[in-house]
Structures are given as structure tokens and as C-alpha cells.
Design brief:
29% strand; alpha/beta; 2 domains; Alpha-Beta Plaits; globular; disordered C terminus; Rossmann fold
């Protein structure tokens, strides 16, 4: 198990990581969430001993970081670090050798992974000939080929199309079922909501929300309604009965003002919209994220693209 206690890291006058504590357990996925610049990548680099904390401790099953621990960790960095002129398979085998994997074992595992990610055709191609998405899949293979017990992924879905996002999600679930400890960072809440058992939400270097995802959604789920409708729902964003409104075309997630009940809202909007679906349910992780880290002026987020609708769970 990974245990992080009271980490702090300052760069000149900027406190990038401010008293962060968390743990990651076997057989679970922990999401390290936050907006851009929140301190996610710095926290990961501290855990990996790439940079040193000013204060705080990091332990791996009670042990401090060491060369032996390093080989038990798989890491996918946010920035691509592949040798562009090298061939794909040779690149994977090279990184496997750095982790102490025997050549014959590495080759067998690499070919299996290439098959699972539909990359076999590219085995003898140079890295620079691959798309960004395929390069990201190669980086994931490199991160897990040596069978680490702790897998840390920094923005793992970057550059992947929707089909390959599903493929990667399936692989993460297989690792979880195998008892691996997985931590990944992202600022895309839909990914975290579908995958994570627990989350650690940080903003400006501080932890603002931490714990079991289902518990967090229940605690933040009072007076949240979801509606599907026909008509122009743009007026919903200016109604004082809602303290937060997320609009996805003809779908809305609405957080009621304190003291109001769902029925109160329905009575006020039913005369202006044809309501096709109305339900009270837990808020999305995206709405919780906006409430915890959004600027005061970000009361309303209007999104009309199909991807946003998919995040809301209304487009198959």
C-alpha cells in the first residue's frame, strides 16, 4: 500500500503541494483529481522520488523509496518520453530490461500486449510513425509490462479516441481485479466517475475532498435533479431556485437552492418546458468538482457537444 503523509513542496514563492495526505490500496483505483495546475503532477513526482518534498513522508508498504521499490512501480508520465527514431517493439524491450525483465519474458509479454492493443502491425515501425493515441498505448504497455504492484498514470487517456479509451478502461479494470494498486490523475471527471473507487480532489495544492466516491456523491446529493426536456432550457441558468445548473443540450443537472424541494422546481418549470424525464439522484462528479474548485462566477456551465452529453450519461 502507498501511504503519503503531510507532503509539502514549494517552488520559490509558490506552494505547489500543501500538506497533502492520501493512501492507495491494493485492488482499488484512486483518482487524483483537480483542475490544471492544481498540483497533481507535482504530487506524483514526489511519490516517485523524481523531486524531493520539503516536508512529509512517503511509504510503500511501510518502506521508504529505494531502487527495489522503483522496480515495483509502473509509471505513465503526462509527457511522452519515447525515443522517436527507435522501433516500437525494441523500445518496449529496452524499457523492460531497465526493470529487470528477462529478454524472453519481455518479448512474450510485449507481443501479447501489442495484440491486445491492436499494435502488432506496428511492431517494426518507428515510434515517430505512430499516432499520438498509439504512442500513448505504447507508454501504457511500458508502464505495466514488468508486472508492478503499484501503477501510477498521469493523464492516461490523453490522445486516445473513444474506442481506445474503452480498451484502456478495460485493462485498468483487469489490473484492479488482479489486486494491483492503481492511482491515476485526470481533470476529466467522467473518466474518474466511471473508474475510481476513491478520489482525492486537490486545488491549489490542497486536498479539498477525499474519500470513497459513492460516499462523497451521497453526501453531496441532496436536492439535485436531472431532467430531459423539449424546448429552450437556457432560462434555467438564471433561475434563482437553482444554485448550480449544468446544461447539456436538452438535458440538465440542477442543484436546488437551500430549503427548496424537487417538487417546487418542477412546478416552476413545467409550464415553460415539455418535461420528458424528471428524477432526483446523486450529483455527477463533474458538478461536485465545479462546486468545490470552480470560481464563484462559474455558477452555470452550458455544454452542447455530444461528448458532454456522454459525460452526463444520456448518449449511448
Amino acid at each position: 500500500m502507498l501511504s503519503v503523509s503531510h507532503l509539502q513542496k514549494r517552488f520559490s514563492a509558490v506552494v505547489a503541494v500543501d500538506d497533502i495526505s492520501l493512501d492507495a490500496r491494493p485492488g482499488e483505483i484512486l483518482g487524483l483529481l483537480g483542475p490544471n495546475g492544481a498540483g497533481k503532477t507535482t504530487t506524483i513526482r514526489l511519490i516517485l522520488d523524481i523531486i524531493q518534498p520539503d516536508t512529509g513522508t512517503i511509504a510503500f508498504d511501510g518502506r521508504p523509496f529505494s531502487p527495489g521499490v522503483r522496480n515495483m512501480i509502473g509509471y505513465l508520465p503526462e509527457e511522452r518520453g519515447l525515443y522517436r527514431k527507435n522501433k516500437l517493439l525494441n523500445t518496449i524491450l529496452y524499457f523492460a530490461s531497465l526493470k529487470g525483465v528477462r529478454s524472453s519474458v519481455a518479448r512474450e509479454r510485449a507481443l501479447q500486449w501489442l495484440g491486445r492493443f491492436n499494435l502488432t502491425f506496428y511492431a517494426d515501425k518507428k515510434i515517430e510513425e505512430l499516432s499520438k493515441g498509439n504512442q500513448q498505448k505504447v507508454q501504457f504497455i511500458i508502464a505495466v509490462l514488468h508486472d508492478p504492484w503499484l501503477v501510477i498514470l498521469d493523464e492516461p487517456f490523453s490522445g486516445l479516441d473513444p474506442v481506445n479509451q474503452i480498451v484502456l478502461k478495460d485493462e485498468l479494470m483487469r489490473l484492479k481485479q488482479a489486486g494491483k494498486t492503481i492511482m491515476f490523475s485526470t481533470h476529466v471527471m467522467d473518466q474518474a466517475e466511471k473508474l475510481c473507487d476513491r478520489i482525492c480532489l486537490i486545488n491549489r495544492g490542497k486536498v479539498v475532498l477525499y474519500g470513497d466516491l459513492n460516499d462523497i456523491k451521497r453526501r453531496n446529493g441532496e436536492n439535485t435533479i436531472h431532467i430531459e426536456f423539449d424546448g429552450d432550457g437556457s432560462f434555467l441558468s438564471s433561475m434563482p431556485i437553482f444554485k448550480e445548473s449544468l446544461l447539456y443540450g436538452n438535458v440538465a443537472e440542477l442543484r436546488l437552492a437551500d430549503g427548496l424541494r424537487p417538487g417546487d422546481a418542477l412546478r416552476q418549470i413545467v409550464s415553460r418546458l415539455l418535461i420528458k424525464k424528471f428524477e432526483v439522484r446523486e450529483p455527477s462528479l463533474e458538478s461536485i468538482f465545479l462546486e468545490k474548485v470552480g470560481l464563484p462566477s462559474q455558477r452555470v456551465q452550458v455544454r452542447t457537444d455530444q461528448a458532454a452529453a456522454q459525460n452526463a450519461g444520456v448518449v449511448s
